[in-house]
C-alpha cells in the first residue's frame, strides 16, 4: 500500500466510533462513603442508550477500583443493565456496597 492511499483530506477528518468489540468486562467493588459512590452516570433506556460513567471523583473508591469515564455499566449487584432507565439505575446503586461489571467504551479517531 502506498503512503498516498492513507491520506485523508482535512475537510474529511472526523471522529468515528470504532466497530471493535468491547474489551472483556471487569468487576469493581465500590464502597459507598458519606459522599456517595464516587462516580456519576448518564444515559438510560429512555434515551435509547445504556448506562455510562460520566464522572469519577478523584481519590474515591470508584477511582481506586479502576472505574473510568466512558465505561458502560453492564451489571450492578447481579442486575443486568441492558434496558434500565436512568432512575432505575440510580435506585439500584443506593446500596452500601456496589458490585459493578463494566465494559470499556472504545472510540477511534479517523484522520
From TrEMBL:
Tree of life domain: Eukaryota
Keyword flag Signal: no
Protein's GO biological process: auditory receptor cell stereocilium organization; sensory perception of sound
An annotated GO cellular component: stereocilia ankle link complex
The entry's keywords: Cell projection, Repeat
Annotated compartments: Cell projection
Span of domain PDZ: 27-93
Xref: InterPro entries: PDZ (IPR001478), PDZ_sf (IPR036034), USH2_Complex_Protein (IPR051844)
SMART domains in UniProt: PDZ
Protein name per Swiss-Prot or TrEMBL: PDZ domain-containing protein
Species annotation: Sinocyclocheilus grahami (Dianchi golden-line fish)
